[in-house]
Specification:
The protein is about 20% helix and about 35% strand. The chain is built from eleven helices and 28 strands. The longest helix is centred in the N-terminal third of the chain and has 13 residues. Belongs to the mannose-6-phosphate isomerase type 2 family.
Length: about 475
């Protein structure tokens, strides 16, 4: 993995800008690494940092307030942990109870910011985009903040490097008086076919739509009220009736569920007369496919990208990644090969966008690999399935220092825990048992139990489950420090 390309954008204006990070996508075109349970923004795909860490670091430091992060409930602990890993501890993490697209998410962030300052300038960005020239962001953001404070809505249009069919486009209009480098927006264009993409690229009037926006909370909320009052009504109630939970703020489920499902482009950007575009050369990519990652990654003399335990011979123009077993490739060109411990993807680079169709087929077939990895992350650590049989299952469980599983019981299975590293504090009904390395404990069906790591190193144990039903929904939580149901 390459070194970090993060450079904090310094001093975008006199008043701190509020970064807003939207983390709602599943990144299905990057399957099998990106899955809905652990999508691409949480993986270090371009640098040593994960994509959401890169995004947060880009807007961290002088000139910026603590970020507002909008994500779904399932990812809340992953998000909090990854932000803390890079020193971002004051983020306001706003939890969506259901997905309702970008317009309601942005409305929620704007309403939250407006509680403190209605004229706060917000910089909205996706959690999963790459910027290979971040040093160019600060000057563009400084102009954008000025334009936003004048009551307009700004988007950054990326200078195209080719006739790309995977991005939307923005046509520049007239230059904006008094703001060098800013233009009105003539129109937005959906993802074009190859012929129209070539025409727009050659005209020099069109920019790639980055999906980033800069505006004041007051301006955006007024425009949403004008065009989509149902969004404002539902989200205002959801924000007003939110509740705080550890590091998170939970939007009211009933109110947010009633909100229309619509993107910010359709809700506001394509309808308002306030749209402004600032061209930028940020080295931007939405990293929407494995082919895009091939383009972003350092290559050998044959144009190959190799990540993990990979050997290549007589191969060119290919991206080969293994997160597990030895992977050998020979006699091919322009292939994408991605190996996980439970799935393998092989496709031609020209068909990288078709990966989404494969994920849809897997979902229709009811394959759990479409959405979940064998490793499942929890607020206390993670577990991963090792062996599955008809009436038994073997898992590896890793509990972080100080981590504590819920006090729980099962109606359909018994469990046997064998500690292989660290020390476990086990509650079994009324007993408190200290279990050391190479020791084990048996938990009969129906026993009330809890696992804790009281030590300073990670606790690793092997769990053997046995019974007629071994699903994760056979958990009755009696008490949980992480406020899970």
């Amino acid at each position: 993995m390459g070194t970090s390309m993060t450079h904090t954008a310094q001093q975008p204006g006199q008043i701190p800008v509020v970064p807003v990070i939207l983390s709602g996508g599943s990144g299905s075109r990057l399957w099998p690494v990106s899955r809905s349970s652990y999508p691409k923004q949480f993986w270090p795909l371009v640098t040593k940092h994960t994509m959401v860490q890169e995004t947060a670091l880009r807007s961290h430091g002088p000139g910026f307030s603590a970020p507002i992060v909008v994500c779904n409930n399932e990812h809340r602990f992953i998000m909090a942990e990854q932000l803390k890993e890079v020193g971002i501890t004051q983020a306001r993490i706003l939890l969506e109870p259901v997905g309702r697209n970008s317009a309601p998410a942005i409305a929620a962030a704007a309403l939250l910011a407006a509680e403190t300052d209605p004229d706060a300038v917000l910089w909205v960005m996706a959690a999963d985009a790459a910027m290979q020239k971040p040093e160019n962001i600060a000057p563009a953001l400084a102009i954008a903040a000025q334009v936003a404070r004048a009551g307009r809505i700004v988007t950054f249009g990326m200078t195209p490097t080719k006739a790309e069919t995977g991005y939307g486009y923005i046509e520049k209009g007239a230059a904006l008086d008094g703001y060098a480098g800013a233009f009105s927006v003539a129109k937005f264009v959906e993802k074009p076919d190859a012929e129209n993409a070539t025409r727009m690229f050659e005209s020099g009037r069109f920019l790639w739509n980055s999906g980033m926006f800069v505006f004041t909370a007051r301006t955006m909320l007024a425009e949403m009220e004008k065009f989509e009052p149902a969004i404002i009504a539902a989200v205002t109630q959801a924000v007003r009736e939110r509740r705080s939970d550890i590091d998170f703020e939970r939007l009211d489920e009933a109110a947010f569920d009633a909100c229309p499902d619509i993107s910010i482009d359709y809700a506001v950007a394509e309808r308002t007369t306030l749209m402004t575009v600032i061209p930028g050369d940020f080295g931007w990519s939405d990293v929407g496919s494995w082919d895009a990652l091939w383009e972003l990654s350092p290559k050998d003399s044959a144009g190959n990208v190799s990540i993990g335990d990979v050997f290549m011979h007589n191969t060119s123009g290919s991206y080969v990644r293994s997160d597990g077993v030895l992977t050998a490739v020979t006699g091919v060109e322009d292939l994408l090969v991605v190996v996980n411990d439970d799935a393998v993807l092989v496709t031609h680079r020209q068909h990288a966008q078709d990966v989404k169709a494969i994920v849809s087929l897997l979902k229709k077939a009811g394959r759990k690999e479409a959405a979940s990895h064998t490793r499942c992350y929890r607020p206390w650590g993670f577990y991963e399935s090792l062996i599955e049989g008809s009436r038994f299952q073997v898992k590896r469980i890793v509990v972080d220092p100080g981590g504590k599983l819920s006090l729980q019981k099962h109606y359909h299975r018994a469990e046997h825990w064998v500690v292989v590293e660290g020390t476990a504090q086990v509650t079994r009904n009324e007993e408190k048992i200290l279990v050391r390395e190479n020791e084990s404990v048996y938990l009969p069906l129906g026993a009330l139990h809890r696992l804790e790591n009281p030590g300073r190193i990670p606790l690793t144990l092997i769990e053997v489950q046995s019974g007629p039903y071994l699903g994760e929904d056979d958990i009755v939580r009696v008490e949980d420090i992480y406020s899970r149901a």
